[in-house]
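Good morning C.,

I know you're traveling, so I'll keep this short. The sequence:
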Amino acid sequence: MKATLRWDTALRFVGTNEKGQETIFDTSLKGGGLDSAAGPMEIVLEAAAACTAMDIVTILKKKRRIVTEFTIDLDAERAEQHPKVFTKIAMDIRLVSPDATEQELRRAIELSQTNYCSVSIMLARSGCEITWRAELSAPREIEKTQVAIGGTA
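The tokens, ready to paste straight into the viewer:
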């Protein structure tokens, strides 16, 4: 894996991967940036959720489960002294599916966190405590309303 990071302006940087895809990094105005993009630690936090989500959705789809909605909210704590690494990350995982079971969701999360999600596992191995809570619900029934449109032929 290779990437290039290029300085743009202030403390705004553009990362480019081998495929030419770009990620923009910035920091707050107080920190000397433009506050125009997420900072590196925010992106690492989001990457942990993205990695976890990709694993879970893939595992459920391999079981032929329908995923209607999927979200992960994160709450993280960092060390007070430099380096301000993540010390705790809590993941609140919500799945909406008409046919997945709690057991299937729980197993998919466990597989992600112990075997597949490189980002979460890397953070955990650095001493970060990662916890999760999961909620499974069925899709809400959408009431179908027929609307008559007037006119003449």
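Safe travels,
E.
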